[in-house]
Inverse folding.
C-alpha cells in the first residue's frame, strides 16, 4: 500500500505540471487580458494612451504573448509557486492564497449540505427504482432523472428566483444577508444573522440538489440491477430469505461498492464552488470569484484556483482507489 501511494504521488506531480502548463498557456492566449479589459473604456475615451496600456502589461508580466514570453511567465509563476507564493490577484488586489481560503468556506457549506441531501435522496430512490423495474415508480424516477440531467443550471436557477422569490416572495433572491441590515454582536444578533444566511442558502442548495440527483440515481439504479442479477442473490432467495433481507442486507451493501469511485469528484466539488449557481444567486463563494477572475484574465487567481482544484482531484482519486480496495477485498492495489 505504501509503495502504491508513493508511486501515485510521484505520477501526480508529473500530471500537475502538465495541467499547470496547459492552463497557463490557455489563460495567456485568451483574446483579451486583464489590462485590456480593465482599460478598454479608458482607451476608447482617450483618457489613457496605448503606450501606457503596454507599460501596465509589462508591469503585470503579460506583455509578451509569444511562445517564449508565455514560457518565461510560466516558469516565473512556477518558481514562485514552489516557494509557496501563488502571487497577487490582479482583480482582487490580495494574495491568491488569502482570497481562496477566505471565500471557499461559503461554497464548502453549500456543497456539504447539498451532497449529503443528494446521497440521502438519490440512493434510496435508485434502489427503489431498480427493485420495482418497469413499474410506475421506476418510470417516475427515470423521468425525474432525465429532467435533472437536462436542465441547465442557469435556467433552473433563474426559474427558482423568478417563481419562488419574485412571484411568491417566499425566499430572498440573492446574496447571503439582507443588504444594509445590521446585526448585533451578541448571541441574539449572531443567531439572527445565521438564520438570514440559512434562509438565503435554501434556493442555491435546492437548485444544486435537484440538478445533481439524476446522475447519482441512475448510477445507483444501474448498479443495483447488476447486483440483483448476481448468482449469490439468487442463492439468497432460494434459501427462503425475505425480499427485504435480500435487498438491504446482501444487495445494497454491494451496490455501494462502485459508489466509492465518486470520492474522486466529491472532494474538489466541496471546495471548488459552483460557478453558475453562485453567479445567479450572487453568492460570493470561491466559484463565483473564479468565474469573475476568468472573465477578466486574472492569471494569478485562475492559476491558483485551478491548481487548488487539481491537487484536490489528485487526492480525491487516490482516496477513491484506497477506499475501493477497503470496501471490496477482491480489489488489490498494484505495487
Amino acid at each position: 500500500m505504501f509503495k502504491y501511494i508513493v508511486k501515485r504521488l510521484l505520477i501526480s506531480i508529473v500530471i500537475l505540471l502538465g495541467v499547470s502548463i496547459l492552463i497557463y498557456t490557455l489563460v495567456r492566449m485568451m483574446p483579451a487580458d486583464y489590462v485590456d479589459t480593465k482599460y478598454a473604456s479608458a482607451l476608447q475615451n482617450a483618457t489613457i494612451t496605448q503606450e501606457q496600456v503596454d507599460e501596465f502589461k509589462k508591469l503585470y508580466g503579460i506583455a509578451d504573448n509569444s511562445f517564449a514570453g508565455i514560457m518565461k511567465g510560466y516558469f516565473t509563476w512556477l518558481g514562485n509557486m514552489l516557494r509557496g507564493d501563488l502571487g497577487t490577484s490582479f482583480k482582487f488586489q490580495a494574495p491568491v492564497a488569502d482570497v481562496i481560503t477566505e471565500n471557499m468556506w461559503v461554497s464548502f457549506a453549500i456543497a456539504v449540505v447539498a451532497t449529503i441531501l443528494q446521497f440521502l435522496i438519490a440512493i434510496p430512490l435508485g434502489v427503489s427504482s431498480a427493485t420495482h423495474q418497469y413499474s410506475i415508480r421506476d418510470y417516475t424516477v427515470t423521468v425525474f432523472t432525465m429532467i435533472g440531467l437536462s436542465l441547465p443550471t442557469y435556467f433552473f436557477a433563474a426559474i427558482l428566483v423568478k417563481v419562488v422569490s419574485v412571484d411568491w416572495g417566499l425566499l430572498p433572491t440573492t446574496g447571503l444577508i439582507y443588504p444594509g441590515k445590521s446585526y448585533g454582536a451578541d448571541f441574539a444578533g449572531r443567531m439572527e444573522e445565521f438564520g438570514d444566511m440559512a434562509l438565503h442558502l435554501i434556493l442555491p442548495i435546492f437548485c444544486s440538489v435537484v440538478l445533481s440527483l439524476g446522475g447519482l440515481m441512475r448510477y445507483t439504479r444501474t448498479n443495483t440491477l447488476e447486483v440483483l442479477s448476481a448468482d449469490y442473490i439468487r442463492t439468497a432467495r432460494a434459501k427462503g430469505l425475505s425480499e427485504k433481507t435480500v435487498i438491504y442486507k446482501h444487495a445494497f451493501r454491494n451496490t455501494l461498492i462502485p459508489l466509492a469511485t465518486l470520492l474522486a469528484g466529491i472532494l474538489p466539488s466541496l471546495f471548488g464552488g459552483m460557478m453558475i449557481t453562485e453567479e445567479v444567486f450572487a453568492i460570493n463563494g470561491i466559484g463565483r470569484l473564479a468565474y469573475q477572475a476568468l472573465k477578466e484574465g486574472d492569471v494569478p487567481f485562475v492559476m491558483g484556483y485551478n491548481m487548488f482544484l487539481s491537487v484536490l482531484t489528485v487526492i480525491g482519486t487516490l482516496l477513491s482507489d484506497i477506499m475501493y480496495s477497503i470496501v471490496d477485498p477482491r480489489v488489490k492495489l498494484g505495487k
